[in-house]
What we know:
The chain has helices at 7-19, 29-36, 45-57; strands at 62-65, 68-69, 80-82. By secondary structure, the chain is of the alpha+beta class. Strand 1 (62-65) and strand 2 (68-69) form a beta hairpin.
Amino acid sequence: MISIPDQKLIQDEILRQVATRAAGRSICPSEVARAFLPEGWQPLMGPVRRAAVALAREGRLEVLRKGRPADLDELRGVIRLRAPLPPGESAPE
């Protein structure tokens, strides 16, 4: 039986990891899951996605799908996470 970290711990790890990336660069949610559980991390993906959506709704994170901001109400498939870009700034190519 694995222990699922609480949402606050997951959010803190998401924010820590995106802060280490250059402006406009993103992380994969699996990187966050692996930080807590290097082996068998897959069960953490749901909690990581939910924590990311909560941060995005607060304006503290961007959830991307195919390189564009995702619809948080219709979130499906592969996503990436990044810190919000300053107004007027675009992501690096």
